[in-house]
Amino acid sequence: MHTRLRNTPKQIMISLLGATALLVGAWAHALEMGPIEVTSSLNEPLEAKISLGGTIEELEYAEASLASKERIKNAGIMRHPLLDELVILIVNNKGQSHIQITSNVVIKEPLLDILITVRWENGQLIRGYSILLSP
Fold first, then answer.
1. Looking at the domain assignment, is residue 18 inside a domain?
2. Which residues contact 109 (CB under 8 A, 6 or more apart)?
3. Domain of 64: which CATH number?
4. How many structural domains does the chain have?
5. Model confidence, pTM
């Protein structure tokens, strides 16, 4: 004997709301990178920062770096030798976190494309940025 299960509209709505809450909860705890803010000019050492959002736990153990040479190539980005001169760190200051990108050498290229990778305990995020340096 076949018994057909029948869901009432109320049961369906409760199930959908529960699934949505689980998805939103998972996304709400994902680390995110904001836009890049460049404070240096052309013919100066690079100084830039990228804001970070996430929970204290995610940010506490997060690490930032330039993406691998292979990933940069796969993304179709020309890997400029200047990228080897970049220092990339996560800075946590009074509850605000950002990625600090600096160089010890003068940057003479007006446009640099970079891919930044952030890894933390439960994931990884890769985002590309174009750095335009004004004279």
1. no
2. 80, 82, 133
3. 2.60.40.1590
4. 1
5. 0.75
